[in-house]
Amino acid sequence: MSVRAVPAESAAVADVEVAQRDLDGQMNGAILRFPIHSEALLVKLSDVVRSRIADGGPERNHLLLLMSRGPISRLWIDGVAYVEFRSDRSTYHFAVEADAETTVTLETTDFETLVRFVMEYVAGRSSEPTVLEAAP
Fold first, then answer.
1. Whole-prediction pTM value?
2. Which of 4, 27, 35, 130 is spaced 20 to 30 Å from 90 by Cα?
3. Residue 20 pLDDT more than 70?
């Protein structure tokens, strides 16, 4: 019997192909779907972020990349930004709590979209502050 992982369509499951030889020596198998816990997906995100900033640039200095556990697992990017995986909807929730009245959020099912958004946030943290003016 052989077992190998194959790419899954959804971020919340992993496909595992189980194959074995029948009495005639022919390979047959089935693909089984196993749920992936939200914490494992957040660890994967942390690993991707770490690998993309492995050069040790200034943006790395203030990253926490810490996991907090509770009813919903949360990966803290820094003191104000975090990512949760909402397994009931199979979505990633990225939030930046800029101040008491301002929160920027992204909800997506696409891991690469999340990675791009988080990396833009990390890169933006290290740049000079931008002054924004509201239009009258």
1. 0.65
2. 4
3. no
Token pair for residue 44? 């994967």
Q: 3-state secondary structure string, the chain?
A: CEEEEECCCCCCEEEEEEEEECCCCCEEEEEEEEECCHHHHHHHHHHHHHHHCCCCCHHHCCCCCEEECCCCCEEECCCCEEEEEECCCCEEEEEEEEECCEEEEEEECCHHHHHHHHHHHHHHHCCCCCCCCCCC
11 has pLDDT over 90 = no
Q: Per DSSP, what are the bridge partners of residue 20? A: 28
- Parallel/antiparallel/unpaired status of strands 13-21 and 2-6: antiparallel
What are the phi and psi torsion angles at 40 (to 5°)? -65, -35
CA-nearest of 96, 104, 105, 114 to 44 is 114
